[in-house]
Design brief:
mainly alpha
Length: 166
Amino acid sequence: MENIANSSWFVPVLAVIMGVGLLGLLVYIIPGLTIIWLAVLVYGIVSGFNVGSGILFGVITLLMVGGSLIDNLFMGAQAKKTGASWLSIIVALVAGIAGTFILPPFGGLLFAAVGILLVEWIRKRDLAGGAKSAGGILKGCGLAVVTRFGIGVLMIGLWAAWVAWL
């Protein structure tokens, strides 16, 4: 493994993979944070772990897990601010997951917005209120994309520090 770790192509290839992961954060079908994390894991396995790199890898892992949960938290929180019920938020979550597979790459977002719109419209008999909740889901999604992108940049930065100094 030491031959691979010391080769001239290893780090640049991982950097490109991480770049693809970072761009994947802008499209829901590609699990960008997971791709970045896996590239860091491969680097750690090939180059070896020590105390400092183990701590950095632990922080990168926590960032990946937290960043993966942020979508649902931000989308649900923004929808809740508009008065959406928990039932609507759960339906939107399930519809979003289904939509990701039915109509990639943006089906998840579309299905989540339509799901919350329909449930809130039926629940309140108010199309404008349902639209407001759908807007909340979309706003939460936008905030989540920006946040996940920042987390991805931070993960890559921590890996770069690992490569440079550990």
